[in-house]
Structures are given as C-alpha cells and as structure tokens.
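Intended use. Records like the one below are meant for learning the mapping from a protein sequence to its folded structure. Do not use them to infer anything beyond what is encoded.
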Amino acid sequence: MYALKPVFEDGDTLSRKIKPKIAFPTPNVPKLFYIQRDPNTNTIIYDLNVEKSGQLNPDEPVHVYWIKYNEHGQKEELNFIQRKFAYGVVAKPAGNDKYDVRIVAYKKYQMTLSKWANDNKYHVFANIDKHEVIVNRIFLRIEGGTFWFPNVVYIEVKGTDTQSGKELTERFKP
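Structure written out for the chain above:
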C-alpha cells in the first residue's frame, strides 16, 4: 500500500513548512513610498523630510521611519543599525532639484527624487521595463538567513507608469 503525498499549488509533492499568507495593511500616512517584508506587517515609510519653513531639507530630503503594525500601529524611528545597514537611504543631489536615492542595503537599485511636472509635487521615480514609474511599494520576500545576512528570495517593486497611469510590477533576485 502506498501513502499519498499532498500536491501543492506549484505541483511540489515535498512535505515542508508553508508560510501562512500575511495580510499587509496599506499605510494611511503621507509618504513617497513604503517597504513591507516578511516576517511581519511592520512597514517602513519613506517620506519627504520637510523643514519648518515648508522647504525640502536639502541635506536629508527623505525621512524614513517604521509603522509598527505588529504592536500598536505606532510610528517609530529606525535605529542606528536599521538606518545605516538596512532601510536607510543615501540621497545625493543630482542637480535641478533632483536627488539620486539609494536604499543602503541595496545600492544597485537607482531611484530619483524629483518634482513631477504633472502635479509639481515630489515623487520617487524608477524604471520598470523601460517605463518611468512613480514608486509606490517595495516588497521583500525573506526566507531564513541571519540578522546580518537575511535570505532575500526576491524584491518586488510596484509603481505607477507616468505615461499610462497603469500599475507596473518588477520582481528580481538581489
């Protein structure tokens, strides 16, 4: 007599732990874009860093902080390690009121902070499949690894095409 093995959606018959799907909230705060990742719903918000005068801070144009949904939904600043090695940004002036923006953990991915001619507001722009998009959300699929070296299975970037208004998605392995 043979024992039947369960077949999963992808046709896999191996018995292994399947991660439960997490219902990620959409942050209801002013933001340029946000990052969500396994293993919980805590969300990293990237927003304009505006001075009291209402002007963009030219030295640090992007303010990054947590919304801790897994606790009480409170706002919390990134700690030193998170800011310098994981979710912080490096923003360098690129001329004409534009900034080259890179997330410190993955500096290969180029984004640009600048005003969009359509609404004269600041947005973060990137390219998805040769289309300029306004970045809305980044998702990191993490499976295992260590504190300093998490195993990032993929990065998914979602943005709005500046020409068509359609949402575009790019998924890649870092």
